[in-house]
Amino acid sequence: MFRYIALSVFLLFLAILLFRTFVIFTPDKAIFEPCSSTSDNHSLHFDQQRLQAFQTLLQFQTISYSEDRQNVEEMKKCRDFIKKHYHGLLKRYPNFVQLHSIAEYSLLFSIQGKNSSLKPFLLSAHMDVVPAGNVERWKHPPFSGYADEEFIFARGTLDDKGNVFTMMEAVQEYLNVYGQPFRTFYVALTHDEEIGVAGASGVSRYLSEQPFGRDGQFEFVLDEGTVIMEEAFPTLNNPLALIAVAEKGFLSAEYRVNVAPGHSSMPVTPTAIGILARAIDKVESTPQPSRFGQGPEMSLLLTVTPYLSFPLRLVMSNMWLFGPVVQWVLTLKPGTNALQRSTTAITLINGGEKDNVLPTSASATINHRLHTADSCRRVLETNRAIINDDRVTARIKTCSEPSPVSPFGKDVYAYRVLEQTIRQTFEQSRQPIIVVPGLMLGATDSRSYTNLSKNLYRFSPFIYRHDDLNRLHGDNERIRHKDMQRGLNFYFHLIVNNQLENLPLPKFKSEF
């Protein structure tokens, strides 16, 4: 009798696992027709004329070194080039296209729609770039814009002039094809994203005085962000598009020890350096608590689940049982570990004055990137408990709290349009693209736009291979011609698709 009961329980348990694996978690369906070059579904091409214009944009050395040091003359040239290159928009459509100068070097294009009752949206990108580093390590000069048959090489191709150019070309194409849109939208091109927020803050202040901006009712804001990854997950052959629905916070804290002076011939132990060394070793070797399941990382994993192979699909479909195992697996790689917790990095250390003098003080800076379920105060309290030594004092140098998690899912209009436009642009018949909510590990201009909308998304419409990740802010930054073409079409169709007030359920052609 007991054997039959045990067998029944086991079969029921197995049935639950399999039901969740193959019934509950199933792939989603597309609602827009794929982007093509047919007459009824417009497609843009990254032709020679566009390539030459993009190369010119890349040749401006718009380098941001620090908060008080920027290549201003090159930024002026870049700004003036964009104004001149897209001046035709202001000339042809003066009744509904305007250009505003923000914080002297940033630009804000305003495209007024016919229907003032529709909530506007904002597209944002930045013109400044980080320094190129040692140019001897570059295959081609970092500001030459050199192009071969597959790539364009230059600092800023990925971050973020690729977005600047494809965004503006898409706006120009849309207006030339359709004229005035139904829904108002704005395009912000900022000048100091890499070092500050003057450009984005100025844009935010201006838009907060416009309709729907006063009460934070913009339909959505889309800024640079996460990308499309290939070979991103074990057993997953599909490309994975991540829409960052939140942004990690940033905390830099200085930890300091002060003691009485002394001579090295009669040392008192531990010294200030010794006390500090023990403290930072404890912090570095003790990870911040896992916040697995408290942020967008859980939704990311569950959205991927239907596309995984068995038995990994069974594991991911049943987090109620295998959650602790998945959490442990995430800790094995820095990239995945960063999704589930606040990270810790010792970035600066200082102490001592002379070889034979005991140091009276020592200090170290610890940098944390905060998970959305954490806060500056919470991480500092955790560190204090880990160090457990009142001789070590903490001082906050910089604190930027994590962003709110933006709404996502099938029932959120803004996220749904963005998700479906990605599928429309990038999906292949034999290899459907998977679109998932994700977490932005770095900081973007979007942190300045929280007053405009609760729907803040961070996404760059480019496909990355694993070796591309190191090129971002690294050597030999480059972008594929194919990615530029897909970027053009992504932004074009995003503008087209957002002229709708509601999304119909069945698949339909997206052009009017």
From TrEMBL:
Gene3D superfamilies: 1.10.150.900, 3.30.70.360, Zn peptidases. It catalyses: an N-acyl-L-amino acid + H2O = an L-alpha-amino acid + a carboxylate; N-hexadecanoyl-L-phenylalanine + H2O = hexadecanoate + L-phenylalanine; N-octadecanoyl-L-phenylalanine + H2O = octadecanoate + L-phenylalanine; N-(9Z-octadecenoyl)-L-serine + H2O = L-serine + (9Z)-octadecenoate. PANTHER family: N-FATTY-ACYL-AMINO ACID SYNTHASE/HYDROLASE PM20D1, N-FATTY-ACYL-AMINO ACID SYNTHASE_HYDROLASE PM20D1. Secreted enzyme that regulates the endogenous N-fatty acyl amino acid (NAAs) tissue and circulating levels by functioning as a bidirectional NAA synthase/hydrolase. It condenses free fatty acids and free amino acids to generate NAAs and bidirectionally catalyzes the reverse hydrolysis reaction. Some of these NAAs stimulate oxidative metabolism via mitochondrial uncoupling, increasing energy expenditure in a UPC1-independent manner. Thereby, this secreted protein may indirectly regulate whole body energy expenditure. Keywords: Hydrolase, Metal-binding, Protease, Zinc. GO terms for biological process: amide biosynthetic process; amide catabolic process; amino acid metabolic process; proteolysis. GO terms for molecular function: aminoacylase activity; metal ion binding; peptidase activity. Belongs to the peptidase M20A family. It comes from the Eukaryota. Pathway: Lipid metabolism; fatty acid metabolism. This is Peptidase M20 dimerisation domain-containing protein. Pfam families: M20_dimer, Peptidase_M20. Residues 245-389 form the Peptidase M20 dimerisation domain.
